[in-house]
Amino acid sequence: MLIRTKLMLSVVVSLVAFVAMFLLQLYTSDVKSTLADAANNITEIEREVLQLRVTEKDFFARLDAKYIERHDAIYVEINNTMAILKEALISRGLSTQSLSSFEQSLDTYKAIFSELVILQNEIGLTPKTGLYGDLRQSVHNVESILKEQGQAGLSVTMLQLRRNEKDFMLRRAQSYLDKFDKNLSLFKSQLQTSSLNSQTKAQLVS
Predict the structure, then answer these.
(1) FRET label pair with 134: which of 17, 70, 75, 77, CA 20 to 30 Å apart?
(2) What is the reported pLDDT for 25?
């Protein structure tokens, strides 16, 4: 083989090797970039989940509807980030099983939170709304009747019931419910032995 031919062949081989190494480097760099992006997405999901829990606690602590909207927005952000992460994992032939399990857990958590929000709305987000508002209005009506009828003893017991109610709503402790039930039984007993007519008694316990 001529020297010139050998040199040309050597150059071609070297060029092919260079191109192959260059392409391999590009591929490796692309893989690293994809994995780096995936790691960033995971970190972002962790941060968003933390925000989700903080917003949940803020809602139950303050009972402000704005935290429900914030909770929904964060949930959407997490799902968007998961979609990007899943696409990256699939593109590299990596398993998405753990991500799918997390997604199911997140959906379960969101469903439970939504149910609790519905229940809390029924109870009342403020002292004037929901069942809590109905309770307060009923108590005010009873207090008005007792005042009109001059029933000091029953009024004192009613004040104890109001105190038990407020303590429970503030601290959510079973002990205040027990005290409420005890004082409610006392109120009913006092009511039956009071001088009020049967119609008024029926109105007070209806």
Answers:
(1) 70
(2) 55
- Among 29-33, 42-46, 101-105, 163-167, which is the least confidently predicted range? 29-33
Confidence at residue 201, expressed as pLDDT on a 0 to 100 scale: 85
Pull the structure tokens for residue 166.
Answer: 């407020």
For residue 2, pLDDT over 80 is answered with no
User: How does DSSP assign 117-185, residue by residue?
Assistant: HHHHHHH-SSTTSHHHHHHHHHHHHHHHHHHHHT-HHHHHHHHHHHHHHHHHHHH--HHHHHHHHHHHH
Say what the pTM is: 0.72
* Burial status of residue 158 (CB atoms within 10 A of its CB: 0-12, 13-18, 19 or more): buried
Answer whether 90's CB lies under 8 Å from 99's CB: no
pLDDT 10s digits, 39-76: 888 889 899 999 999 999 999 999 999 999 999 999 99
Measured distance CA(91)–CA(41) in Å, rounded: 15
Compute the average pLDDT of residues 83-99: 85
Q: Which two tokens stand for residue 33?
A: 């970039």
Q: 168: closest CA among 182, 153, 189?
A: 182
CA-wise closest residue to 102 among 114, 94, 91, 110: 110
Task: Count Cβ atoms within 10 A of the Cβ of residue 168 and give its class: 0-12 exposed, 13-18 middle, 19 or more buried.
Answer: middle
